[in-house]
Amino acid sequence: TQCYNCTTVNTTTYLLVYGTNYCSAECPPGQFANATSWKCLLCDANCLTCVGTSTHCLSCGFSSIGASLYLYANGCLLSCPNGYFPNTTTNVCDACHAGCALCYGATSSQCTACRTANISNVTTPFYKEVGSDSCSEACPSGQLISGTKANSCSQCDPGCASCYGLSTNCSVGDCNAGYFYHEVNSSCLVGCPDN
Fold this sequence. Notes:
The strands form twelve sheets. This protein has a two-stranded antiparallel sheet. A two-stranded antiparallel ribbon has the order 3-4. A two-stranded antiparallel ribbon has the order 5-6. The relative contact order is 0.07. Helix content is 0%, strand content 39%. It is built from no helices and 24 strands. A hairpin with a 7-residue loop joins strand 13 (100-103) and strand 14.
């Protein structure tokens, strides 16, 4: 057990465990096998486990300040890139729903910003609903596609049950309770004007 170098025995390659004089068939967690030197070398400080090289992480631990790190593209990050969210159970950056640009979970109702996605080679815009964390392919009733903010819905005027083009263009005869449709300017009013 006081080894300086290791060898292969019966097709099993032994490696010198980092910081010891012990030969092992496998490297312990936090080390990776270097086939050239037949030694176990240390993983990068951010990697809990790695393979092949010190920076090819398989799992992540904690940063130098004790914050959780998340696995993304075989690296360990403090925060996940756009389109991904930190899965606190697996410590992996998991993909958002296809319609989410930013999210805190995997479903379409856990989005903080929406985007246009390419789904089955079809460009599909998603819109962030007003007062919700949902991204949908169409704005719900009482909302319309925003003319000023990309991939977002805007609220129709209070009297409109549904609107088109502008928030003030109420759909014909589609007013909320207590409002009346006015044909001249396509609006829903609390009371009808003179005449």
